[in-house]
Structure formats: structure tokens, C-alpha cells
Specification:
single chain; Glutaredoxin; five-stranded mixed beta sheet; 5 strands; about 45% helix; elongated; Conjugal transfer pilus assembly protein TraF; TraF/TrbB; Thioredoxin-like_sf
């Protein structure tokens, strides 16, 4: 049976290569049968646009180029891999990265101390209590002398209020310590009884006239530092204190500002 000749126009266009879509359809029979709506990247006019090539995975960043935060994240990632896979290679890789981080931290520590050595203004031990054993002995001796001197100089301008109860065992323990402070440094101690009783070391204690209520004293023994010139009172401490603690607190409250000797 004779074959019907192709349309001369069709032959003409194929010859000129202006129907690539039609020619491609002959190579891929399923192209035109696919739905454009199911493949949004598929062309639907004369040809299918080429899909963009997938970008290659970035090369791993060298450990030395990582920031501290990036290195920490990498250590956490490799630790998770090592714990989950339980493989020798994963554990080895994790340990290598961890060792790198430890070496970096050691170098920083070394640079830190060298910087402090060469910049005395950044050495905290020169601003307060020293760390050297021999310097510490000299510092403590000088500080003790300075604090004792402060207490002795305060005798003319300051005094201590000692609030107590005669049935309080802690008040009985603190009373001889306060009496020793009074004799040693000359700072007068005014004993105030909240229940009208007395103590052996303060037989002439005065009964409270409402002062404890105004100061809202709820616990005894209580010690307040009083400025005789201004009448200002400030708490020195509550409970049993040693002689050294009393001397130290008097010095801090009268001779220093917050943060100076902390």
C-alpha cells in the first residue's frame, strides 16, 4: 500500500532544524505525554530548559580556620557521630579534633600569662591580695596593722551598740569578745538589753527604750556601728563574731568603698 508522502512544509522545517522540540519528542517519546503541572521545571513551549547543575558540596573548613564557636560545634558533631557509630575511625577523628582544641586553649593560656607578666596594670594580684606565699605574709601583716589602727582611731568618733537578751546563750558568748575589743581599741560599747536583764560583762546595760523596734532588730546578738558625730547607725553583724571579724568589719565599713578590698 503506498505511503502517503509527508507534508512538504514539515519536511522543510525539519530540514532547517527549526523543530527541535518535535525531533526531541521522537527521541523521548514520553516527553510530550508528561504533565507540566506535575513537573514545574519542565518546559511547555518548544523545549525543556536545562536544569541547573547541583552545586558541589563545599570543601571541609580547616580546623585552624574555624572560629572558637565553629570548632565547638564541630566537636559536638563529631562526638555525636562517634557515640552513635561506635567505630574506631569516628572515635579517632573526634579525639584528633578535641586535641586540636586543647592545644589551642593551651596556647591561649600561655599568651594570657605572658601578657599579664608584661602589663602590670592587668595583673589582678597586684591590685588586691597577692598569690605569692612570701608576699601574702607581708600583705596580711600590713593589712592587720592597718585595720587595728583604724579601730583605734575610731574611738573618739564611733562606738558600738550591742543589743542582747539575758537568756540568749549566743549573747553570753559574744559579750566577752566585745568587752575585749573595747579594752584593746578604746571603742566604747553600749549594751542594750531587750528583756531588761544584764550580762556578766555588761552589768550596767541599759534597757531598750524602743531603739530596737525602730531599727527592726529581730535577731540577737546584734551589733551596730554608731557615728557619734552624725548619729548614723549601720549594722556591723548578727550572731557571734570573733575579735578579728569585728576589727575587719569596722575597717571595711569606715575606711573602704564597695569593691575596694574584695
Amino acid at each position: 500500500m503506498p505511503t502517503k508522502p509527508s507534508s512538504p512544509f514539515l519536511v522543510f522545517w525539519i530540514t532547517l532544524g527549526l523543530l527541535p522540540g518535535w525531533a526531541g519528542a521522537q527521541d523521548s517519546p514520553g516527553y510530550w505525554s508528561q504533565s507540566t503541572w506535575q513537573d514545574p521545571e519542565r518546559g511547555f513551549l518548544w523545549y525543556a530548559p536545562p536544569k541547573a547543575a547541583a552545586s558541589p558540596a563545599p570543601a571541609p573548613k580547616p580546623l585552624a580556620a574555624m572560629t572558637n564557636r565553629e570548632l565547638g560545634a564541630e566537636i559536638e558533631r563529631m562526638l555525636s557521630v562517634a557515640v552513635e557509630t561506635q567505630s574506631v575511625d569516628a572515635v579517632r577523628d573526634y579525639l584528633q579534633v578535641q586535641q586540636f582544641a586543647m592545644d589551642r586553649a593551651s596556647r591561649f593560656s600561655d599568651v594570657f600569662r605572658r601578657t599579664v607578666w608584661s602589663h602590670p596594670d592587668l595583673d589582678y594580684s597586684l591590685r588586691g591580695r597577692p598569690t605569692n606565699a612570701m608576699a601574702l605574709t607581708a600583705y596580711d601583716a600590713e593589712r592587720t596593722q592597718r585595720r587595728q589602727t583604724a579601730s583605734a582611731q575610731l574611738a573618739a568618733s564611733h562606738g558600738l551598740f550591742f543589743f542582747f537578751r539575758s537568756d540568749c546563750p549566743y549573747c553570753h558568748q559574744l559579750a566577752p569578745i566585745l568587752k575585749l575589743y573595747e579594752r584593746t581599741y578604746g571603742v566604747e560599747v553600749f549594751a542594750v538589753s531587750l528583756d531588761g536583764g544584764t550580762l556578766p560583762d555588761f552589768p550596767h546595760a541599759r534597757a531598750d527604750n524602743g531603739m530596737a523596734t525602730r531599727l527592726a532588730i529581730g535577731a540577737v546578738p546584734a551589733i551596730y556601728l554608731a557615728d557619734k558625730r552624725s548619729g548614723q547607725l549601720q549594722p556591723l553583724g548578727f550572731g557571734v563574731l570573733s575579735l578579728e571579724e569585728i576589727v575587719n568589719r569596722v575597717h571595711v565599713l569606715t575606711q573602704t568603698v564597695p569593691g575596694q578590698e574584695y
